[in-house]
Amino acid sequence: MEELRAGLESHLRALWSDQSLRVTRVESIPEGHSGFTYFVDVEDGARAGAYVMRMPPPGAKIRGTADVVRQGRIMEALHQAGLPAPAVPVLQDEPVLDGRPYILMERTQGERIEKASTHEDPEAIARSAIATLRRLQELPPERSGIGHEDPVGLDYEMMRWAWLMERAPEELTGAAAELGGLLAERKPPESPPCLVHGDYHYGNMLFRGSEVVAVLDWEIAQLGQPLIDLGCLCLVSQRRAFEGAPNPGGGVDVTIERLVELYGADPDEFRWYLALSCYKYASIFGYNLMLHRRGKRPDAMYEDMTGTITGLIDRGRELLEGVKL
Questions:
Q1: Domain-by-domain residue ranges, the chain?
Q2: Which of 3, 223, 260, 299 has the greatest CB tally within 10 Å of its CB?
Q3: What DSSP designation does 306 have?
Q4: Handedness of CA 318, 245, 248, 164 (dihedral sign)
Q5: Which CATH number does the domain 113-320 belong to among 3.60.15.10, 3.90.1200.10, 3.20.20.70, 1.10.730.10?
Q6: According to CATH, what is the number of the domain 2-106?
Q7: Residues 276-317: tens digit of each pLDDT
């Protein structure tokens, strides 16, 4: 950590032309499961303040979820548009720090959902999350930071999660093929694409009171279908059925029906997207469990999610067979 601190200090002094600058703290952020994110404190320089630094894993290919600079471009574009995202004063795409690129964001003062949900009204939190989602989706794609990228259609969306599902533990995913077939068979018509966070839930937000003040963790963002993110948010309610399993935002007790009403979606149209979210998150959790068991990305949290994985697959099938939201 001291080598990281010294390297960052040296790079920022050169980048900002300020030899008085000192990096006094680089500390790993304990919450979350996204990898290499750090609190950074800078003193004495003209840009002294509190920051958050993100880096890809050592040796990772800089693409997909490891492309932290792409994430930074999105957040900076949102910040410039007046949306709840931190300013990103450093977008360093060259491997200058421990052989890796990095981004440095201004630290947003806000609470994580685990704390906010203990003293704020769940309905107020949900209203703010839905209103924020609507604002994000109204941003023209060309102002999103990834406007040059091709939109992701639903066929590719399903293939993406099928690839992960095939690598999850087989004893948990036996019914996944049937769910995948139903999703392909009943795929709805597509709407004009918008910015999609891809993992839009309360655990990826910061709050001041009940208001969302930052949306973070843009690793799997894309231009795609708007109801994908509503499906992500509704999975928080869906996962409450699996008692004892980890569930960021589980304290926000607002029903799926109410979230759909607040958003203004057609429940029949949304049913398919909720089933897709069940398939998607079952594949993500299953894939991460595989990585944990093989020692490639140890995180014991996923051992507590076996019932969630099988339950989400079953729930997705039920939704496409007409069971109520």
A1: 2-106, 113-320
A2: 260
A3: H
A4: negative
A5: 3.90.1200.10
A6: 3.30.200.20
A7: 999 999 999 999 999 999 998 888 999 999 999 999 999 999
